[in-house]
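Entry for iron/sulfur cluster complex. Fields follow.
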Amino acid sequence: MTRPRKLFVKSYGCQMNVYDSHRMADTLAPEGFVETAAPDDADLIILNTCHIREKAADKVYSELGRMRVLKETAAREGRRVTVAVAGCVAQAEGEEIVRRERSVDLVFGPQSYHRLPEMLKRAEYGKVIDTEFPVEDKFDHLAAPSRIAMRKRGPAAFITVQEGCDKFCTFCVVPYTRGAEVSRPVEKIVAEAERLADAGVREIALIGQNVNAYHGRDESGRTSSLARLLYRLAEIPGIARLRYTTSHPRDMDDELIAAHRDLPALMPQLHLPVQSGCDRVLKAMNRGHTRADYLRIIERLRAARPDLALSSDFIVGFPGETEEEFRDTLRLVSDVGYAGAFSFKYSPRPGTPAAEMAQLPENVKDERLQCLQAEIGRQQAAFNARCTGRTFDVLFEKPGRKPGQIVGRSPYLQPVQVMAPAGMVGEIAAVTVTEAGSNSLFGALVRAPKSANARVVEAAGV
Ligand code: 5AD
Ligand code: SF4
C-alpha cells in the first residue's frame, strides 16, 4: 500500500461550495487521500473558489500567493505539492489563473470535479485546465462519503439537489459559472438522505442556486416539485428537520407555501432574497418580480407559518440607484421585519449586463451599505431578543464557545449555546432561552433528553 497522501481543501463562498468540497474529499478518499486542516503538510491543496463578487475572487489570488510559498518550501525538502483551483473563479477565468500564478497545476470548474483522480494523474505531466460543462451528471460518478466522514461532519448536513440558474439577473455571474438549471433525480437524493440518516444526521438542508425551481424526476418518471421532495424526505426515519436554500420569489409556489403550514419537519425559517425594494431597480436587475409581488408572497408565507423567520440578500449601489430608490429598500426592510439578512455593495462582474451600465461612486455604496446593515442589525437583535424566555428544540452540532458548552441551532437557525454534556451532540433537546446576543442565543436544557432516535421534533410554538 502507498503512504496516505494529505489533502487540504479550502472553501470560499456559498454552501454549495462547502458541499462540493466534501464530495471532492469523498472522491479522493479511495485514491488514498486523507484530509488535513493544515495546508503546510498537504500533498494536494484545493481552493474551491467563489466568483460572486470581486472581493471574493481577489481573496483567491492572495491565497494562491501563500500557497506558492508553501509549494516552494516543500520542493526544497524534496516534496511535491499539487495546487488546484476549483469552483467558480476556475470556471470563469480558466487559463488566466495559470498565467497569473505559475504555482497552479490544475484548474477545474464546478461541473468537472468527479474527474479529479484522472485530472491529478495528468497534472503530473503538465498544467491541466478543465472547465467544460459535460452532459453527464457529475453526482453519478462521485464516491459516497464514508460513515466516518459523515459522522465527522456533524448531525446537520447539506444535499445539493439543484445546480445552476436560468434567471439571468443582470448583476450575477452564476448563470455563466454554474450553467443552466439542472435538478437531480428524486431517488438519488432520497438514497443520499437515507445514508446520512443512517450515520446519525438529523437535519438536512437542500441546497441549490435556485432551489425552489427544483424539478427532478421521480421513480415513475414524473417531475417532482421541491415541496413533494421535502414530503418524501420527511418520511425517512431519523430525519427530523428540513430546510432549503436559496430560493427565488418567482418560484415560491402554492404547494411550497402550504408545506410551511403542513410539514412539521420543515423548519420555520426561509432565506428569500429580494435584492432591492424599488421596482425600477428590480426591473433593471431583471428579477422578474415587483416589490408588491414579494410582499404578497411574504404575507402568504406568514399566513401559513406565523413564526416564520425570514432572511434576504440585498444589493446596494446597483448602477443608477438613486438615494430615494435606496430608501425604498430601507422601507421594505422595515415593512418585512427580518430575522437577519446579507447585504452587499454592487460589484461589477465581467460579462454581466450591469457591469456595462454607468457605475455609482464607491463612497455612495459604502454609505448605503452602512445604513442598511445598521437597520438589519437592529432587526436581527430585536428578533433574537424576542426569543428570550421561549422554549424550543435545539439540534446540538458541536462543542460550544466555553468549556462545558455545546452549540446547536434553533428552529430559526440561530446558534444556541447551552451548558450540556458533549455526548448530547447529535441530539435534539428542548432549551429555554435565557439570554440573547446579537448573533446567537444562550439557553438552558429543559430536561435530560431521551435517546436521539426516540425523540420527535415538536413544532416550535411561538
Ligand atoms: N454584486 C454584489 N452582490 C452580488 N450578489 C450576486 N452578484 C452580486 C454582485 N455582482 C449577491 C446577491 C446574491 C448573493 C448570493 O450575492 O445578493 O443573492
Ligand atoms: Fe444569480 Fe439571479 Fe440566478 Fe440568483 S436568481 S443565482 S441572483 S442570476
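NOTE: Residues 165, 167-169, 172, 174-175, 209-210, 248 surround iron/sulfur cluster (ligand 2) (CB under 6 Å).
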